[in-house]
């Protein structure tokens, strides 16, 4: 399998809708206002519904139920607004495509659970930015989407070998497809012109020891992915718990004794966050 | 259980107190290497450990089913670094969770 050809075919994937790019532009304009952003979101009724539902989910911990887009955006802030619109957009665009061996729902459950866990770890450990950790967690396995969609046969051979415990899935991807989901994921984010900050968490979450580039967010996503895999909250194909990088573990600032709390909170919050994102 | 036999990932059954009755570590905490080192440095020689939560009520548990669960969790962790204290604690938590749900 030729990795370059796979990269060239990324254009066959659905692109992000114009409304996302307009929202981002409005957010990044120096004199842009949440007012403009709210207007854009409200022009898309199904997006408005989803944005409100997610804003009211445990992700943002708002004190009271909010039923107005403007107010919701003001309460959660600019960065979280961008992430919220990006995540609801991605989950809508990649919702009904068949992935073969893994269901799209399970794929997103894994991503959302990882985002929830990453946010909790970032908050507890005090080293990473919780909002960035959340989005990096949600996106960490995004490179598997093109692998499943564009190369279903090779990917199912890799999955079969993984099921037989011949190795970690990312190593088998490399073996069967000549590229793994971390590398392809970072290229996909660039192709979508998403902010640079998420690329290293996506490209290094299985190799956080690439220390020169390793950020606390990358370390947090590495640990969150491992926890969520061990709890089997959804799956992007991985069946076996990955190897923990000791440096990343220390970089998160988390104590082992906090693990039970993190696990419990991840399980509970993930349930609510999934239903906020997934309900029709 | 004697402190020498304590392994990371075990769960405290009783609070550990200092000689003045101050709680050092609360019951229910899963011990990591750091806590074990701390217990050693406090001169604690014996602590109450939650016996395999699965065998707490052998009358209602089928030992075969328990072995099955234990084996499946071991397989799930077989490609990970089991010698790392965090992985040991996570393994113990996942095992307890699987047993609780069975």
What features would you describe in this structure?
The complex is a heterodimer of chains A (280) and B (102). Helices cover 65% and strands 0% of the residues of chain A. Chain A has 280 residues and is an all-alpha fold. In chain A, helix 4 (45-55) packs across helix 6, helix 7 packs across helix 16 and helix 14 (216-231) crosses helix 15. The longest helix of chain A is centred in the middle third of the chain and has 22 residues, at 104-125. Chain A starts with a helix and ends with a helix. The relative contact order of chain A is 0.14. Chain B is built from three helices and two strands. Chain B is mainly alpha-helical and 102 residues long. Chain B has helices spanning 33-41, 63-76, 85-101; strands spanning 16-17, 23-25. Chain B is elongated, with a radius of gyration of 15 Å. In chain B, helix 2 (63-76) runs antiparallel to helix 3. Chain B folds into two domains: 3-41, no CATH class; 57-101, no CATH class. In chain B, 39% of the residues lie in helices and 5% in strands. Chain A binds chain B through residues 165, 167-168, 226-227, 230-231, 239-244, 246, 249, 255-257, 259-260, 263, and chain B through 8, 28-30, 32-35, 75-81, 84-87, 89-91, 93-94, 97.
Keywords:
heterodimer; A: 280 residues; mainly alpha; Hypothetical protein af1432; 65% helix; globular; B: 102 residues
Summarize the structure.
Chain A: It comes from Allochromatium humboldtianum. Chain A has 280 residues and is an all-alpha fold. In chain A, 65% of the residues lie in helices and 0% in strands.
Shape of chain A: globular
Weakly predicted, low-confidence segments of chain A:
none
Computed over alpha carbons, the radius of gyration of chain B is 15 Å
Mean pLDDT of chain A: 91
Major sheet summary line of chain A: none
Q: Which overall shape of chain B is indicated by the principal axes computed on the Cα atoms?
A: elongated
Largest interface pair: A-B, 21 and 25 residues
Multimer state: heterodimer
> Please, what is the average pLDDT of chain B?
84
Number of helices of chain A: 16
* Helix-strand sequence of chain A: HHHHHHHHHHHHHHHH
The third-level CATH topology of chain A is: Hypothetical protein af1432
Helix content of chain A: 55-70%
Structural class of chain B: mainly alpha
Beta-strand fraction estimate of chain A: under 5%
The CATH class of chain A turns out to be Mainly Alpha
Count of individual domains of chain A: 1
Strand order of the biggest β-sheet of chain B: 1-2
What portion of residues of chain B is helical?
25-40%
End-to-end distance of chain A, in Å?
Answer: 37 Å
